[in-house]
């Protein structure tokens, strides 16, 4: 019984977690030195490190209190950056909720130097707007006066906008090749993120230091509309309303529950620029901020650069936050939320903050319940199919944390039954009714997960800002992982008995029409000028800062991937992992649900089956002990079987998996439950607006009533399925020709004299069970695409505040020679926050929170490309939103500055992108589907730089302008403007039965 545990022992050595780090008092030779002058001694920067830190983080603190975390990771010449502020929605004034989040939006608008053509003329107008908003707030009880004041706000905003350069921050970041430009606000924090080329670090520092020096409320009323739309999206999300209800009951006195990050409608409609400025001045100070950078950096040069740009920011005292003490919950608190989406029940328990022993215990108990493989919820509820789906998660915050249990019912199952089943699993923990090996296995698998995640600069830098927000030293943050490993079973049993009783909140999410549905009222807004070709002096100065050239590195599939032939029809593709002791193994079979819809059912069935001496639950437990996991998925034309985890356990994990794949034990009861679950999932899908629009309606438009989405196993056939039909289908998969892909530390073969560990080729030959002769995969089967020659508007009725609209145009069949033009068009026209579409529809006209347009290349030869344009807006803005998008698609505006930026963005991004790890193999898989034998990014890099607007316009006029469209709309029937929809084509309502096929 204990033998599998022995396989865990090599884990620590294989993980690569034994990096030696600097001591907390580094030698002078390790300090960064500022450039020397004749009158000043070199400046030394002291830093601290943490013992046993796998990231090698150095933590500096500048003289003004700014905390700087740096980690050198040379996976690619890029750096992930986070600018973290210890200020979130809990710091919002009670009378101005949503302030921190709205400020986050404003920080993207620039300063008195960034984002303005003429600050001396713009500032007086902005001052007027600030005063008018204060007046507007005071007129809450006088609608007529408010209307007059808002008209003034709109008028003066138009004057101020003449001097603004909208999206200049986004343009500047785009020009240097930054990716992932974004920010988030939550309870404790506001965090700004960029992924930048390493040679553009000085430009990044110049811009980021500028944007935290001051806050200019530029284009305030149009951005407020974007926040309104964000609020509307929340009002259309049953989960958001459910979670807010849970927190309101768990935290009746703490801001975690008394206010939300997005804010109330009342406060959103009565904003105060004065309060926002005050908040910025209080919290956006260096002693309350941190910079967290991970990537290809030089520690000494980076800290000198940061000090140069951030060191002069003045520090000041930060308001102390006094956390309210919540009264104990002595009996269950029951709440209900009603909405159109599927039913579920959510339970929440309140705990101490995350930087406590109880916080660690709660994290451990959460993993005992749900870890994706061997948790009690995973095995007792999900694998045994007692509920449709159940999971737990921890919402960790500084003052309090919440442990959430979440479950969705099976057909005919009451939410109260789901609640009882989840509580019964808690009771098992209280009795100690879980295996002794589970906690050590959780510790091991958490280490594995961290090791894998630390292949990403995003995860590495995220860990740094989490430590800062948590207000603990980096050494203590790293030590949390060690402390987590000291938790015992007896400790968890005691903890569960002391903290999990009747002290919970239960929120029952019922299906129906929300009687409390509200919406943010649409104000009258005059579009502001986009000023696309304008640029501030600051923009020009930053653009001229020197940067060393970086050359792109393209994949050479013949050199970067080694190959071996295991047998005819079974090639092995190999890339070595020299970084850590983890592996990823894939079997790729060119066979999918288009050939046989039963494949989707069969691959899902596998998780409920045992093999040999192992039941289904025991099998998952064995994999978890080994630090490995498997997955089998099917798409239209491919089955992908994957195994991943700790490479030192590859052989036993693979033997176990091969046994399952070749000898699954049929289980009639499991199949009966699975079929019932599939039918319930199909019902729930018809309640999900995302599935309705982006899958059901989109497939209907592209292919007609019979399409890949509706080509499913009919209910009658599902109910007559025999287990042996599915196990036979599963066992047939390895009999087809397929490809093996391996990324890991082993060698590809055994012909090296010093290799003692069996090579991957040897293991495949020994353990991968296949017949002597493999069958060729059947011919690919694709659904015929509709010509889309008629102008049609399809709509589906759904009770919601917003309307969501997709413009769909069929393009040419995939042609690799179009890749450079398509890349430049997408970057220029609809690719991001600096694109034409975003600038026009959101920034200028305030018509949406989210708007995009792209020419989407097919993912396989022989398939068509499509032009997809999306906008989500309040239903009463639908006419302006549709007209705005259509106008842009018809006549693409010329903006020379935007075109230059688009070219720079593409060039800088490709020059610094590196496809690594298993991404090399997966890139090859994508290329071969498109008939490519080389890295097509080379064409994009070489050709886009010299393209002219004339060439781009020629492409747009030939491929997009005037092309027939099908428009897809989802919204509430009583709010849609059908007269407006009729302008775009024949309007036809689609029923859910038509688009789902059942």
Describe how the helices and strands are arranged:
Elements (H helix, E strand, L loop, with lengths): L2 H4 L4 H4 L17 E2 L10 E2 L1 E2 L9 E4 L5 E6 L5 E8 L13 H8 L12 H19 L5 H19 L6 H8 L3 E7 L4 E8 L3 H11 L8 H16 L2 H13 L4 H4 L6 H4 L4 H11 L5 E7 L3 H12 L22 E7 L4 E9 L4 H13 L6 H8 L5 E7 L4 E9 L6 H17 L6 H16 L3 H14 L3 H11 L4 H11 L4 E8 L25 H7 L13 H4 L1 E6 L2 E7 L5 E8 L8 H8 L10 H11 L1 E7 L4 E8 L3 H13 L5 H18 L3 H15 L11 H5 L3 H10 L6 E6 L15 H8 L24 E6 L4 E12 L5 H12 L5 H9 L5 E7 L7 E11 L3 H13 L5 H17 L6 H11 L7 H8 L4 H11 L6 E6 L6 H4 L4 E4 L2 H5 L2
Parallel strand pairs: 5-9, 10-14, 16-20, 21-25, 21-26
Antiparallel strand pairs: 1-2, 3-4, 4-5, 6-8, 6-9, 7-8, 11-13, 11-14, 12-13, 15-16, 17-19, 17-20, 18-19, 22-24, 22-25, 23-24
Helix pairs in contact: 3-12, 4-5, 6-34, 7-13, 14-20, 16-20, 23-29, 31-34, 31-36, 32-33, 34-36
Describe the structure in your own words.
The chain is of the alpha+beta class and 998 residues long. Helices cover 41% and strands 17% of the residues. The protein has a 7-stranded mixed beta sheet, sandwiched between helices. It has a 6-stranded mixed beta sheet with strand order 15-16-20-17-19-18, sandwiched between helices. A 6-stranded mixed beta sheet has the order 23-24-22-25-21-26, with helices on both faces. Helix 34 packs antiparallel against helix 36.
């Amino acid at each position: 019984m204990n033998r599998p545990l022995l396989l865990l022992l090599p884990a620590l050595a294989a993980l690569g977690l034994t990096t030696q780090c600097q001591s907390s008092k580094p030698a002078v030779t390790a300090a960064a030195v500022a450039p020397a002058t004749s009158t000043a001694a070199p400046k030394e920067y002291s830093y601290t490190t943490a013992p046993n830190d796998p990231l090698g983080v150095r933590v500096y603190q500048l003289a003004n209190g700014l905390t700087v975390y740096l980690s050198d990771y040379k996976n690619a010449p890029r750096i992930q950056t986070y600018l973290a502020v210890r200020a979130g929605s809990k710091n919002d004034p009670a009378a101005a909720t949503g302030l921190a989040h709205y400020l986050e939006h404003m920080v993207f608008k620039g300063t008195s130097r960034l984002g303005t053509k003429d600050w001396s003329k713009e500032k007086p107008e902005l001052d007027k707007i600030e005063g008018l908003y204060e007046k507007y707030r005071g007129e809450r009880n006088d609608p007529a006066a408010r209307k007059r004041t808002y008209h003034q706000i709109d008028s003066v905003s138009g004057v101020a906008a003449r001097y603004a350069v909208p999206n200049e921050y986004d343009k500047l970041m785009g020009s240097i090749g930054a990716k992932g430009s974004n920010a988030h606000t939550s309870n404790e924090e506001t965090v700004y993120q960029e992924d930048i080329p390493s040679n553009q670090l000085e430009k990044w520092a110049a811009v980021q230091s500028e944007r935290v020096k001051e806050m200019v409320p530029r284009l305030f009323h149009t951005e407020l509309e974007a926040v309104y739309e964000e609020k509307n999206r929340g009002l259309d999300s049953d989960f958001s309303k459910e979670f807010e209800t849970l927190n309101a009951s768990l935290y009746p006195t703490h801001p975690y529950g008394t206010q939300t990050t997005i804010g109330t409608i009342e406060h959103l409609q009565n904003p105060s620029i004065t309060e926002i400025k005050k908040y910025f001045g209080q919290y956006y100070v260096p002693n309350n901020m941190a910079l967290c950078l991970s990537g290809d950096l030089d520690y000494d040069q980076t800290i000198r650069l940061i000090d140069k740009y951030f060191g002069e920011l003045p520090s000041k005292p930060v308001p102390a936050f006094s956390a309210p003490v919540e009264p104990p919950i002595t009996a269950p608190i029951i709440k209900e939320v009603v909405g159109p989406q599927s039913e579920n029940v959510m339970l929440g328990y309140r705990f101490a903050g995350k930087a406590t022993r109880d916080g660690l215990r709660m994290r451990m108990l959460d993993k005992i319940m749900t870890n994706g493989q061997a948790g009690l919820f995973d095995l007792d509820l999900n694998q045994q199919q007692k509920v449709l789906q159940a999971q737990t998660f921890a919402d960790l915050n500084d003052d309090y944390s919440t442990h959430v249990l979440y479950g969705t019912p099976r057909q005919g199952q009451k939410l109260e039954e789901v609640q009882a089943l989840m509580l019964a699993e808690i009771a098992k923990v209280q009795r100690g009714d879980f295996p002794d090996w589970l906690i050590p296995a959780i510790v091991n698998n958490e280490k594995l997960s961290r090791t894998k995640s630390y292949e990403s600069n995003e995860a590495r830098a995220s860990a740094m800002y989490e430590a800062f927000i948590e207000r603990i030293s980096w050494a203590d943050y790293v030590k949390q992982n060690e402390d987590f490993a000291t938790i015992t079973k007896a400790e968890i049993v005691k903890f569960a008995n002391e903290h999990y009783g009747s002290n919970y909140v239960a929120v029952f999410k019922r299906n129906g029409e929300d009687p409390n549905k509200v919406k943010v009222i649409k104000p009258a807004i005059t579009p502001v000028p986009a000023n696309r070709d304008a640029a501030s002096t600051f923009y020009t100065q930053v653009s001229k800062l020197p940067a060393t050239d970086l050359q792109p590195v393209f994949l050479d599939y013949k050199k970067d991937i080694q190959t071996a032939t295991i047998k005819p029809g079974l090639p092995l593709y190999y890339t070595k992992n020299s970084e850590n002791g983890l592996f990823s193994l894939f079997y790729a079979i060119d066979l999918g649900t288009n050939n046989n819809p039963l494949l989707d059912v069969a691959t899902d069935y596998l998780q409920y089956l045992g093999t040999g001496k192992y039941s289904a639950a025991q099998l998952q437990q064995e994999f978890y002990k080994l630090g490995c996991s498997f997955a089998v998925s099917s798409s239209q034309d491919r089955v992908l079987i994957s195994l991943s985890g700790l490479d030192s356990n590859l052989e036993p994990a693979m033997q176990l998996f091969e046994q399952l794949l070749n000898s699954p034990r049929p289980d009639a009861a499991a199949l009966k439950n699975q079929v019932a679950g599939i039918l319930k999932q199909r019902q729930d899908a018809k309640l999900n607006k995302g599935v309705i629009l982006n899958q059901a309606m989109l497939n209907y438009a592209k292919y007609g009533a019979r399409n890949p989405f509706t080509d499913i196993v009919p209910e009658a056939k599902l109910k007559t399925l025999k287990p042996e039909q599915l196990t036979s289908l599963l066992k047939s998969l390895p009999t087809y020709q397929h490809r093996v892909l391996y990324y890991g530390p082993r060698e590809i073969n055994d012909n090296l004299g010093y290799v003692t560990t069996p090579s991957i080729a040897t293991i495949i030959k020994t353990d991968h069970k296949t017949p002597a002769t493999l069958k060729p995969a059947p011919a690919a089967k694709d659904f015929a695409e509709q010509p889309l020659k008629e102008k049609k508007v399809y709509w589906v009725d759904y009770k919601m505040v917003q309307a969501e609209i997709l413009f769909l145009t069929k393009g040419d069949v995939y042609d690799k020679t179009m890749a450079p033009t398509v890349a430049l068009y997408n970057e220029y026209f609809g690719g991001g926050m600096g694109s034409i579409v975003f600038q026009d529809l959101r920034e200028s006209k305030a018509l949406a929170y989210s708007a995009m347009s792209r020419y989407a290349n097919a993912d396989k030869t022989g398939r068509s490309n499509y032009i997809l344009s999306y906008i989500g807006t309040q239903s009463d803005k639908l006419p302006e939103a549709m007209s705005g998008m259509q106008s842009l698609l018809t006549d693409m505006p010329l903006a020379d500055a935007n075109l230059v930026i688009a070219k720079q963005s593409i060039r800088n991004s490709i020059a610094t992108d590196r496809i690594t790890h298993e991404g090399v193999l997966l890139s090859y898989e994508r290329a071969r589907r498109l008939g490519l034998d080389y890295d097509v990014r080379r064409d994009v890099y070489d050709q886009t730089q010299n393209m002219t607007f004339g060439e781009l316009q020629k492409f747009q006029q030939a491929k997009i302008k005037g092309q027939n469209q099908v428009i897809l709309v989802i919204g509430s029937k009583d709010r849609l403007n059908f007269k407006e929809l009729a302008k775009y084509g024949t309007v036809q309502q689609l029923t859910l039965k038509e688009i789902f096929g059942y």
